[in-house]
Amino acid sequence: MSEKPRLEELRELLEREIAELEARLQLYQQLLALLEECATGAIPAGRGARRGKEFRSRDGRVAARLVATRDTIRLSFTRPVPEQHPYVRYMLTALERLAADYEGLEYTVERDDEGKVASVIVTGVTRDTEDEVYAVLEFAAKKVSELPLR
């Protein structure tokens, strides 16, 4: 009987240690994402990111990153996605509609060597358009991150 309480204590100790390690891992992942965004120039000097979010696959890998600054929102895929993919087509169609509806709103699609979509950068984002643009990009990022990795 004395072994059972010890096992419970050991279990609780391990669970606390795992929780602490997961918290540290999350902090390191956020720092890494910030460094990567700084290296790509997605965060202009003096502005800082207003919103940022990572989307993870089922196995915990970062599938996409969404970063918003004052007038730019950038969605980057860690593994480029074919433009023919339904969620990517939806995103591009929605961005085309938003660009037509809002003056000054523009988007750029960056592709890898195979022509797959690596990132989308939306510029000219205002307070009036920010939530709508962010929602479109967030939806696409979430759906793409749920896809099985090949």
TrEMBL record:
Coiled coil (UniProt feature): 4-38
Record's keyword terms, sorted: Coiled coil
Protein name: Uncharacterized protein
Organism of origin: Pyrodictium abyssi
